[in-house]
Fold this sequence. Notes:
Elements: E1 2-8, H1 16-24, E2 29-32, E3 41-45, E4 48-52, E5 65-68, E6 73-75, H2 76-88, H3 93-96, E7 97-100, E8 104-106, H4 108-121, H5 133-142, H6 148-151, H7 154-175, H8 186-197, E9 201-202, H9 204-213, E10 217-221, H10 248-252, E11 261-267, E12 270-272, H11 284-294, E13 306-308, E14 310-311, H12 312-322, E15 326-330, E16 340-349, E17 352-354, E18 367-375, H13 392-405, E19 409-413, E20 421-423
Parallel strand pairs: 1-10, 1-11, 2-5, 2-10, 5-7, 6-8, 7-9, 11-15, 14-16, 15-19
Antiparallel strand pairs: 3-4, 12-13, 16-17, 16-18, 19-20
The protein binds guanosine-5'-diphosphate (GDP), 6-O-phosphoryl inosine monophosphate and magnesium ion.
The site of guanosine-5'-diphosphate has 22 residues, from helix 1 and strand 3.
Amino acid sequence: MSSTAVIGLQWGDEGKGKVIDSLAAEASIVARYAGGNNAGHTVIVGEEKYVLHLIPGGILHEGTINLVGRGVVVSLAALVEEMEGLKDRGVPVEERLRIDSRAHVIFPYHCQLDSMTEVWRGAGRIGTTGRGIGPAYADRVARTGIRIADVLDPDIFRKRLEASLAEKDAILSKVYGAEPEDHGNLFEESRELAERLRPLVVDGGGLLASAYGAGERILLEGAQGTMLDLDAGTFPYVTSSWTGTWGIAGGTGLSPRNLDRAYGVSKAYCTRVGEGPFPTEMEGEEEERLRAQGNEYGATTGRPRRCGWFDAVQARYACRLNGLDGVVLTNLDVLTGFSRLRVANAYRLGEERTLNFPAETGLRADLNPEYVELPGWEEDISDIRNFDDLPPSARDYVAFLEEEMGVPIVQISVGPDRSEIMSGRNGEVRLWS
Ligand code: GDP
Ligand code: IMO
Ligand code: MG
């Protein structure tokens, strides 16, 4: 019996897709538990590049079931489009994909509300992906949301959709002053999409419980990152779901007592897309250089990612909250050529020094990270597969991060391909229990 979770430790885009793909080779089920098509998880296999948005990262593996868990918000149109894209590339998607009937649906009016609320926020905008994520989760909490199970029942769906459209039209026109949206054939189109998905719709919690009971391996796929978590993150500049290990049971239906292992994924530096506090953000040429070396552009929206130094205050906070067995450090290769590397190990808040990530970072202009400087390295490290073969300053950098986080770095990734990875300084660790 075993389950293993892979969680983003920063502001998303840590390289979870790559780590999940490699672990999925040994998993019976890979389950996503949060977010929606705001996620973009890149998997590179040789010359082939796949960017997965809603479909879990085990889809490229024969014999692996991929579950879109009940905590995921699902645009039916986006899901079917993603399935078609994979099918066109020869992936037998239907064999491998399942969708929880309790998952809530994102409709076009959620996307419209997403962009309208962003306009309304003005300078305080979050910089959302515009995929309707926040409004769909808001409907879930407000109990006006519509689940896949509801769309599959025409009578229930008609009633719930009519009620929802009446409410949304009133909000859009009376609150936001928007033109009433023409909903076209939303009922028929959604019904058609849902009927196509029907054979794949399951009780996800039941599926996971039987697999766990039968001793199969379950991989729990995080989306976004700990700092984008609704409660743990840099509120309000966050997404609208629980992205950390605490979201897994709620978002899949697997009992929290069946969560065995959890690994965090962190870049060897930081990035963030969208607005919000980013204590170690770089500026000017340094940032441009890192962005170019790391090709730091969003996998979902193509926006340039903001780049910054590794933030040990933030990393310690994320490790503690998630309760991790280890960290996979990615993109170490990207730091090649920087003569000195900076790591924030404390924050100054006015006169005060703190080692903890404060709740009000978004509001405090007097927050300044305290940096430690470490020497960089010049060598290309992307072909290295043994920790001991890394340049001494790269080894020292990894050891420093590990000590700061207080969690072992079990793997180090030095390139986007599946093969570009090595064990940490303590040698090989099996990530499954
Ligand atoms: P995710 O959302 O956490 O799955 O990450 P993304 O796919 O959005 O972004 C990670 C990017 O980094 C992708 O373009 C990956 O192909 C790439 N990547 C992953 N690991 C490494 C690595 O070790 N080195 C380099 N240079 N790129 C990596
Ligand atoms: P993956 O899974 C990076 C960010 C958005 C925005 C904020 C809220 O690929 O790591 P939303 O559309 O969710 O309401 O936007 O969250 N964001 C991500 N940033 N990676 C992601 O996913 C993200 N998902 C959401 O840019 O700042
Ligand atoms: Mg991503």
